[in-house]
Every structure is written in C-alpha cells, then in structure tokens.
Amino acid sequence: MNFEFDWDANKEKVKKFKICIKENEEKKGALMNVLHKAQDLFGYIPIEVQKLISKELKIPLSEIYGVVTFYSQFSLIPKGKYEIGVCLGTACYVKGSQDILNKVEEILGIGVGETTADRKFSIDATRCLGACGLAPVLVVNEDVYGKLSPNDVEGILNKYK
Fold first, then answer.
1. 121 and 80 Cβ atoms separated by less than 8 Å
2. Which residues contact 140 (CB under 8 A, 6 or more apart)?
3. Which of the 8 DSSP states describes residue 116?
4. Which among 44, 59, 87, 141 would be 20 to 30 A from 104, CA to CA?
5. Of 131, 133, 151, 154, whose CA–CA distance to 143 is shortest?
6. Sign of CA dihedral 93, 95, 99, 101
C-alpha cells in the first residue's frame, strides 16, 4: 500500500515540525526528539519527512531510516482511525489469540503492521496488554474485548465500520 504524504494538507503541522527541528538542531540526541515530534504530529514518519530531517539536521537519510525502522514506536505508514491490537502474549496465545488475529486479517484484507486503503483500520500484534484474565484479548483504540472466539471478530469490527 502506497500512502503519499500530502504537504498541503499538513501545512500547519509541517510549520510546527520545522520549529521543532530548529529548536533541537544544536542539541545532543536531536534526532530522537525530532522523530518523536514527527510521529506525534503526522502519526507516522514518511520518507518525505525523513528527507526533510536529513536536510535540516545534516544527518544521512540512511541513518534516519535505520533509527525509524529499529524502534517499534515509529511507523513508516499511517495508522488507521481504528487501531486494532491483538494480544499475542502467553495467556492470550494459549487461549487462541492467533486465530483471532487471523480472522481480523481475513476480514480487513490486511496483515499485521498494515493499514487499510481508506485509512480506517490498522492492525498490530501486541504483547501482554495486562488483561490476562480476559484472554484472548483484542483492543480497538481504547475499547477492550475479551474472552473472544474467531466468531466474535466480525461483529466487533462492524461496530467501527
């Protein structure tokens, strides 16, 4: 899926981001601060934004890409309006969370780490969500669903369509 960054639609965010770059350019560890700000502002860090960072901070694009892809809190693709997390921690996995995840992927037609073309849904496989007593668990943004079977998944997703 190719999501092109829209500079015009993000004009105000880009302006704030450039201020952040200027405020951090002389600081030690500036790249991490700037990347966190980019993730917060844009919801992801597209290659266009990485190129801007590279130019302004005079850091090779390959180094920036390496950092973005190394740390799990950064994303190269936009997240959906509804972020779905399926817990694959031990308790959930033993109780069938992989089947829940497979059903989510089947219904939405995307895999883990992907976003639907309409940017409505994205899927992540997570580790323990701290709701082991409800295993297996699926979250949609802040909504937690537990004690699931694959048959429950379509009904849950339909609430958000």
1. yes
2. 82, 83, 84, 156, 157, 159, 160
3. -
4. 44
5. 131
6. negative
Residue at 2 is within a domain: no
- The answer on 107 and 62 residing in a single domain is no
The first and second tokens of residue 74, run together, are: 């950064």
* DSSP H stretches of helix in the chain: 11-24, 30-42, 47-57, 61-70, 90-94, 97-108, 150-158
| Residues facing 145 on adjacent strands | 138
pLDDT (tens digit per residue) in 3-13: 688 898 889 99
Closest CA to 104 of 130, 125, 76: 125
Whole-model pTM? 0.75
Token output for 37: 């700000």
State yes or no: 20 annotated in a binding site: no
Quick: pLDDT tens for 40-82.
999 899 999 999 999 999 999 999 999 999 987 898 888 899 9
**Residue 128 assigned ligand-binding role:** yes
pLDDT tens per residue across span 9-38: 889 999 999 999 999 988 988 999 999 999
Indicate the DSSP class of residue 144. Answer: E
